[in-house]
DNA sequence: ATAGCTGGTATACTCTGTTATACTGGTTAC
DNA sequence: GTAACCAGTATAACAGAGTATACCAGCTAT
């Protein structure tokens, strides 16, 4: 029981460490939803700046959560895609989207 | 489809706004697990400082996610408890714990 | 030609979450 | 009496996440 709890706090903190911050999950979600192009992802996430997107994409690529492919066509074409590992965040993202929707319902009810 | 996606990004960002940061979810988790006392909660979360715990507890109380009850015994006794609203984070927390455990498995396999 | 798209980078700055350390006042235990 | 527990607060400082704004080269459509 006690041992179990310690293990779970650890797991929780590990997860927060990986997907922490304001933008990681929205970016992962966007790419998992099929957005591949830089500007496409940018437009799909309200409020994000090119700088933050650029930085986070690099980070996610380094951590093997997404792949970046440059097609040497003209004009040059860059595509981001999620790896299988990245897709393992699916349940987390879905749970958070579900919570956010319920939350909004409650806010609306009150007003 | 497109409308749906916009709604979901919004919901996701709303959720991140509420439970964002390094400590909120671990604290909520700890209290939901039955930890009631300040030092008890503190000890249950590796790395947290009294200052951060104090601040986050105040914040969570203001947002009606937890209740703070002072029992005027001697010595004074303070108990934190989660509200029903707080418990609605259950699925999110469970999903994140599950991810963290899987993640650790993979790390161990590789080494 | 000029406005707009693509995929970004550069610079500078803010802000606040987070850490570190110390301290308080009361109670209990040895 | 002194050490340790409780429930925190005070002060200072830092690091880096995040913002704002401008800019670049290359291409396209009008």
Automatic annotation (TrEMBL), chains A, B:
Tell me any Pfam family this protein matches.
Answer: HxlR
Q: Which GO terms describe its molecular function?
A: DNA binding
Q: Domain HTH hxlR-type: where?
A: 9-108
UniProt xrefs under InterPro entries: HTH_HxlR (IPR002577), WH-like_DNA-bd_sf (IPR036388), WH_DNA-bd_sf (IPR036390)
Alphabetical keyword list: DNA-binding, Transcription, Transcription regulation
**PANTHER family cross-referenced by the UniProt entry:** TRANSCRIPTIONAL REGULATOR, TRANSCRIPTIONAL REGULATOR, MARR FAMILY
The protein's name in its UniProt record: Transcriptional regulator
Q: Which organism is it from?
A: Chitinophaga oryziterrae
């Amino acid at each position: 029981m006690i041992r179990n709890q310690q293990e779970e706090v650890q797991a929780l903190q590990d997860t927060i460490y990986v997907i922490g911050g304001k933008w990681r999950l929205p970016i992962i979600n966007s790419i998992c939803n099929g957005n591949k192009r830089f500007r496409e992802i940018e437009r799909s996430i309200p409020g994000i700046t090119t700088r933050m997107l650029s930085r986070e994409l690099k980070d996610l690529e380094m951590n093997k959560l997404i792949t970046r492919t440059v097609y040497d066509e003209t004009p040059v074409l860059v595509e981001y895609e999620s790896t299988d590992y990245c897709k393992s965040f699916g349940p987390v993202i879905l749970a958070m989207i579900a919570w956010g929707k319920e939350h909004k319902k409650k806010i609306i009810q009150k007003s």
